[in-house]
Predict the structure.
Amino acid sequence: MTRTRGSRVPFPLLLPAVLGLIFLILPVIGLLARVPWTTLPQRLTEPDVLQALRLSVVTATLATLFCLVLGVPLAWLLARVTFPGRRLVRALVTVPLVLPPVVGGIALLLALGRRGLVGQWLDSTFGFSLPFTTAGVVVAESFVALPFLVISVEGALRGADARYEEAAATLGATRWTTFTHVTLPLVGPGIAAGAVLCWARALGEFGATITFAGNYPGITQTMPLAVYQTMESGDLEGAVVLSLILLAVSITILAALRDRWLTAP
Amino acid sequence: MRTLRLAAAGLAAVISFGVAGCGDGSTNPASGAGASEVTGAVTVFAAASLTESFTTIGKQFEAAHPGTAVTFNFAGSSALATQINQGAPADVFASAAAKNMTAVTGAGNAAGPPATFVKNQLVIAVAKGNPKKIGALADLSGRGIKVALCAEEVPCGAAAGKALDAAGVKVTPVTYEQDVKAALSKVKLGEVDASLVYRTDAKAAAADVGAVEFPESAQAVNDYPIVLLKDARNASGGQAFIDYVLSADGTKVLEEAGFQAP
């Protein structure tokens, strides 16, 4: 505010800015306007709703853990190690970020499905196939959410002061010890933020999940799938109730991350 | 409003033929008949199981009525009914079951009573060559047999439920798909061993899947109704399309696809 004092905000900037804000908020208001508040408590406690919510929370959490285990080392590799083809690797990591999730779902089917590249081997060796299982949901969500974690953790690593790590190295610490005792605590908040972002993305995942994992209540039908199916069946009120839950979860996440995102640098 | 629409239709005619017929159109409101007046874009919302046959009929219709362009939205009938009731711009709705049609007519969104144009019934779609030796509905509840069914709201899902009840068989599918084509694609991909789809869908995919007929299918026959929608932007075009579907030419395409006469 202090910077613009004395000079008026130019209209050609103000108008699109306000329109942009309205554009973002209006759909949410439209959703809230149709919430059946009187029957809401009863609808929220329907077993189907709770089942889908539980499945969503469980799979998103497992996907986040999976992404942490694979994603943090990957981010570290991209941020701390110089190797040929690093730029290519980073580009590959971001592919699922820009890929439409439904395409990701088809790709997963062709790689990990029962007749897929690797999947047929899983099926013939272990008699196990990922599609239509809760594990399949976790895989689909992880595929879509992992880049978010890698990108944000890599950003945190690049922003962290490398001199602490160098000091540890000069004191004789191995790279592994440096990673666990210096790097991780240093970028802890960045990893946490990346994990929350990753969790939110996994929670909202739809296209890859319905394509790869299918749609069965309690096994693979997560909240977004339940919203879709409820809407398709003509039960608008039910779809609104389910959407409201996801909206509430999203706002909670935003509130949890407000220090990182909502305070301008 | 009406004049405006007809003028727009006239404009489309001018663009496609280079004939100036705008004034005539607005003074003589189209009443549905007369091939010469049928022009412009016709939007048809049709059940997924009609994909192949309606695409063919659409091409024939365009050839019979130069200046028309038919666009289709193929999906599960329940999804289509929801979209129409939410105000999606469509001229014609063809449903795979009476129930989903009733959702539209009941909401007052049809221009008149629907007409039943075909019937269809289910078969068991299996992998080519039927490697799991599935011969009857009861085999679907066997151990290690993965089955994809349509969701209950979708006509193929409702019909599957009826057929399974009639057979006294309880099947736990691995997934509920949003339309019959999605269910069939799971068989094509080899992700499931079987699915209950319409005879017509199995026939259209005969290169990739096998079809097993079963007697209980006769107790779950779906009537396909078609209707002109109240808010149709091109009512004359929509009506002409419906007339074409019901004509001998349309019936021929549908029967070749494996549909039965109503």
User: Anything to note?
Assistant: Chain A has a mean pLDDT of 90. The interface with chain B takes residues 109, 113-115, 129, 131-132, 210, 214-217, 219-221, 228-229, 231-234, 236 of chain A (CB under 8 Å). Residues 104 and 176 of chain A are 34 Å apart (CA to CA).
